[in-house]
Amino acid sequence: MTTPLIGVLALQGDVREHLIALAAADAVARPVRRPEELAEVDGLVVPGGESTTISKLAGLFGLMEPLRERIAAGMPVYGTCAGLIMLADKILDPRSGQETLGGIDMIVRRNAFGRQNESFEAAVEVAGIDGGPVEGVFIRAPWVESFGAQAEVIAEHDGHIVAVRQGNALATSFHPELTGDHRVHALFVEMVRAAA
Question: Among this protein's residues, is 69 annotated catalytic?
Answer without folding.
Answer: no
